[in-house]
Amino acid sequence: MSSNTKKRPRKEQQFFDDPAIDRLMGTVMALATEVFVLRSRLIALESQLAKSDLVDITHLSKSPDAVQSSVTKAEAKAYSEALLKPLLGLQDTLGAD
Amino acid sequence: METQEFEAAQDFLLAAKNYWTTTMYRTIKATYAELESGLQKSPDRPAKAIKALQKNTTYRYFAWLERHLQKMKYTGRYGLIPFHSERRGELLKSIKAKANDKYVPELQPDLPLPNYYKNIDTHQHPGGLWTDELAGIVYEYGARSTTPLLGDSHNDLHARLADLVADGTTYERILDMGCGFGKSTMPFVQRFPKAKVEGIDLSAPCLKLGSKTARKARKKNVHFQQMNVENTNYDDESFDLVTSTMLLHEIPPKAIKNVFDETFRVLKPGGRMVHLDFHVIPDEFHRFLHYGHSARNNEPYMRTLAELDLKQILSKKGFKNIELKQFAESENTDLKADDAWRFPWTTISATKPAN
After folding, report:
1. At residue B87, does pLDDT exceed 90?
2. Which of A60, B48, B206, B280 could form a disulfide with B181 if both were Cys (CB 3.0 to 4.6 A apart)?
3. B146: pLDDT strictly greater than 50
4. Residue A1 has what pLDDT?
5. CA–CA separation, B131 vs B77, rounded Å?
6. CB within 8 Å: B68 and A29
7. Helix (H) / strand (E) containing B263
């Protein structure tokens, strides 16, 4: 490997006059992705339910038990991190000036 | 992350990219035309229209999405990097060579890597194609949406180049420079079963995946090696055909000139080179978008390649029959219709004079 490696922090690319809009767009798109993942999951779930009598759909409306609640909390943590990370303007890759 | 979640998120991002490629592109194009028509005719009219377009709100969203859809594809919550990292063990096992395996790439762990290769995460691929053993697998998945409209027929692009190069000619030895994980190499392997094909690249993770692909296809007429395309280990006059696909736009002008020198050196007299890359740009509007892509996708040498006088450079190097031709990347591509964003695909071909 060459020793002449030059690693530099890269400047955030800005497309709007106010950089807050750039970052807010990141949050909006992360949220949009999450909504689609949920929709896709829901479609798959409903499809399975339609084929089977194993799940009582009315049960889904009730308050979750402890196990399910724990899963939901972990999910909320990961979700909020993904949702808010774009506001930090962190760069994931090396780029040219 | 479950596979279903990953696939749903990637489907969404690809659908968004398709919308960007078609509807948003057409909106930007129409906006540019409107801005230009409102200006008095003069040589700098396109430049003035572009300046106005840069302030246009839709254009700004177009530019934002170009950078960030790619970023999300790689490092979003359901990105390629977290998904593949969670499956590291099983994925590395899948490309590990077996005992007495004939399909093993020849690697050079001490090969010096050029700074231009190490200092930029090309395509916004975190860590580039050399720092992580999974990079080849991640890149293979990511490359499926390089040209989103091609969809499942993305491989057609490479097969079309092999068909174009064939043109009734047969080759004994073929060198595919910057072969990556072999996507550009394998169509030559299949198209010319009697030829011995060499694929070279700097990326060890990609070469391992390329060898796996060759093993799966049971193709023994291909050999992958880790080499710098600027300075290979091959003897003079070793090949009838030297080719590359999407290599030149990833290296700086000096390296491009070295590649042409190296191509000339390893070609047999009368041999042919064909590089498929991005070069012939029809007008200032398309040039503006192409340079924008160059900046937004961490591909700075895309712009410098477009600005080179390739005919003059190749002529000075001694090449003959130099041709720069627009290339339709799929059967359905209509170069004149221009109804969707696309790369300015160009074949850069020439021959080494016969003795």
Report:
1. yes
2. B206
3. yes
4. 34
5. 21
6. yes
7. helix B253-266
